[in-house]
Amino acid sequence: MTDLKKMTRAEQKARRPVQILDAAFEEFVERGYVATRVEDIASRVGVTKGTVYVYFENKEQLFEAMIRHISGPLENLLASANELKGTATERLQQNIDLIYDLIIRDRKLRELMRFVIAEGTRFPQIVDRHHDIFIDPLERQMQSLIDEGVKLGEFRQAPAAFCDAVVAPAIAFLFFKLLFDERRTLDKASYVKAHIDLVLHGLVERHPG
Amino acid sequence: MTDLKKMTRAEQKARRPVQILDAAFEEFVERGYVATRVEDIASRVGVTKGTVYVYFENKEQLFEAMIRHISGPLENLLASANELKGTATERLQQNIDLIYDLIIRDRKLRELMRFVIAEGTRFPQIVDRHHDIFIDPLERQMQSLIDEGVKLGEFRQAPAAFCDAVVAPAIAFLFFKLLFDERRTLDKASYVKAHIDLVLHGLVERHPG
Amino acid sequence: MTDLKKMTRAEQKARRPVQILDAAFEEFVERGYVATRVEDIASRVGVTKGTVYVYFENKEQLFEAMIRHISGPLENLLASANELKGTATERLQQNIDLIYDLIIRDRKLRELMRFVIAEGTRFPQIVDRHHDIFIDPLERQMQSLIDEGVKLGEFRQAPAAFCDAVVAPAIAFLFFKLLFDERRTLDKASYVKAHIDLVLHGLVERHPG
Amino acid sequence: MTDLKKMTRAEQKARRPVQILDAAFEEFVERGYVATRVEDIASRVGVTKGTVYVYFENKEQLFEAMIRHISGPLENLLASANELKGTATERLQQNIDLIYDLIIRDRKLRELMRFVIAEGTRFPQIVDRHHDIFIDPLERQMQSLIDEGVKLGEFRQAPAAFCDAVVAPAIAFLFFKLLFDERRTLDKASYVKAHIDLVLHGLVERHPG
DNA sequence: GATGAATGAGCGTTCATTCAT
DNA sequence: TATGAATGAACGCTCATTCAT
């Protein structure tokens, strides 16, 4: 029992940095880098100012650590997409679905985007990082899906940058959610449906023959 | 010559507020609301701190005035699109082209988006304002273009929210430009081409007959 | 008619300094020297800041001029007391009455006292001035009245500083009025009656024989 | 010795608020509320600006706390007067003596009066507070002394508000001390003597028989 | 490790004062 | 004489950071 308690206490301590990073995330999201007070982060964890400085050099490095903390788990974000089965069309649909799920489920992913835009000037690394771990994989994956579809004869030969256009509605959706989430409701289902429908069929009437 | 000087003097005075608003725009873009110093705005204009307070109550109202200043001209942004000629397809293409031109030409439009994301919590009005003067008109216009195309038999009947998906790549483009503009190059031409191609034809191979 | 108007206009201008001094009095009373803004004084007159500086070197000298302006008329404050008729006792009573009338009627006299207390450290001259034009004459006059009464056999021989004690209730009344006027009501009639009664008879029961 | 040091350290901390309040008193007395700089209060204690804000919300609340700090001890000011012995006349004399002692000894009491006059508009509470803890008790006590004297047949039946007049010279003395203390000398002994003499005997010659 | 008192640089804001018109 | 735009010194207040405990 003593062991258990010690363990727990030790664990508690081991968790401190993570607790602080989580608290930092919430505060930085709410107020932005400059307006966030180290003290508010601390009291969210239930410790005092000084404690934050035990674990982090300063506010700047705390912010950067927080960015790494929330963006680390994103690295394998799209892993599940590799296991999709079915025709290229089916996999494309499923993949788009997965992306929306991800966007809706993962608040950290969304807020990371806010940081990129709001603090990108102050912390240029996060701009690149975000591109490398999210935007780029997203497009690569979509591109390879398209390529497969073309190879399989399901998709027509698409022009360069086509995958950008294919992915774009999801990215726009992410921004809408970021922007208007708490002020307007977004109908995910019909948005996704429209997206997939557009991607698959375009707008022009097909004239048989 | 006396006239010129008098003009210049009087004009100088009349221009002060606008000068300050322009300077404020640049500083707020660069550093965000909180980190921007009123003094820096002033010295960008070539005056001292106190002068800013001759024209604006405080930093907050200066920011809000700046938002109004840059978003006012946006109100007729999409007016030119109403004069498009040709088939629905042609007009759709031209309209998309116009949107990209706008996005590329109008830095203030782009940076407004940054403010919406970065300062939306602090200044909730700008979130709604931006939706009302940009997002909403954009979608309405696209929707009516689509409706016409459907009526003319050029476009197929599209599901609800389709216009969101049609517009989305342009919005994503805006964000990319905002995010990566100075760090990566975006190939506008091929992006637009892909966008239009997607919208018109979708991705699925058309099987004749 | 032109003359009249010109006169009037000229008079207006001649009055400017006085207008400003009157306005200054009100503002300084309301907020004290430091917290009063020159601009508020100006707008009370209906002119702008700069105009005040046409007539007065700076805020400090404006304040001093204002003090002179309101305390000048006080110099003959007690003149009327010299014309009192009747027995010493009657004149003493009348004099005390006059003092209370003065205190109640002359707001400037009262507020001058506030300046002396509130700004005496900043403007030491007004302390002396106030003593010289108000406190001192008040006591001298009372002393000479007492002396006459003694000489006439109406008053008993009083100890030194007796006149201080005789005058004191009126001075205390002034302070009460200054302090509590707008928050409590002071019953002047009974206060004066008690004052005169005290001065004439004291408190000890007189045992005949 | 370790104890001493520990004590000193801990005590130092506990004393900070009081040190600051005492320093604030001196500064506010010297310059008035508006002209006093928080930094001057701080350096009087030997700390920096920021430290003051560790203990007090802002300048306004510091001032109010200072008023409470100096006026709290005044609440039992007149307690000792309740233990006076002797005839009513003797007790009246002793009480008057006590009041002057109080006025002369207690600088804070005197300066509180200055705050009431100088800052009463800005801080209306202190006007009432001062009335409640000083003026009112003073008069009540004097009134009950007079009532006893009357009952005992030592004093004659006095008109209403008589106690005001009886107390007034002491209050006027307080103001004189406040006003002229450092510029003129007040002869307390003869002032008190005259006061008591006036109160007991009045001015009118007593005609035997 | 944790605390929180203390620091001090920094910024928003005010306002007396000046001066060109 | 009157204006009011502009100045700049000053001050209230905040907060990241330090350090003795």
Task: Give an account of the 3D structure.
- 4 copies of one chain form a homotetramer.
- By secondary structure, the first copy, chain A, is mostly helical.
- The first copy, chain A, folds into 2 domains: 2-70, Homeodomain-like (Arc Repressor Mutant, subunit A), CATH 1.10.10.60; 77-201, Orthogonal Bundle (Tetracycline Repressor, domain 2), CATH 1.10.357.
- Chain A contains 9 helices and no strands.
- The radius of gyration of chain A is 21 Å and the shape is elongated.
- The model of chain A is unreliable at 1-5 (pLDDT under 50).
- Chains in contact: A-B, C-D.
- The interface between A and B is large, with 65 and 65 residues.
- Chain B binds a DNA duplex (21 and 21 nucleotides) through helix 1 and helix 3.
- Chains A, B, C, D: It holds the Pfam family TetR_N.
- Chains A, B, C, D: Residues 37-56 bind DNA.
- Chains A, B, C, D: Keywords: DNA-binding, Membrane, Transcription, Transcription regulation, Transmembrane, Transmembrane helix.
- Chains A, B, C, D: This is AcrR family transcriptional regulator.
Summed up, the domain count of chain A is 2
- Percent of residues in β-strands of chain A: under 5%
The protein's oligomeric status is homotetramer
Rg calc of chain A: 21 Å
Largest interface: A-B, 65 and 65 residues
Low-pLDDT windows of residues of chain A: 1-5
The helix content of chain A, as a percent range, equals over 70%
Task: Profile the largest sheet of chain A.
Answer: none
Mean pLDDT of chain A: 88
The secondary-structure class of chain A comes to mainly alpha
Succession of helices and strands of chain A: HHHHHHHHH
CATH superfamily of the largest domain in chain A: Tetracycline Repressor, domain 2
The helix count of chain A comes to 9
- Large-scale geometry of chain A: elongated
CATH architecture identity of the largest domain in chain A: Orthogonal Bundle
Measured between the Cα atoms of the first and last residue of chain A, the distance is 80 Å
The number of distinct β-strands of chain A equals 0
Name of the level-1 CATH class of the largest domain in chain A: Mainly Alpha
CATH topology name of the largest domain in chain A: Tetracycline Repressor, domain 2
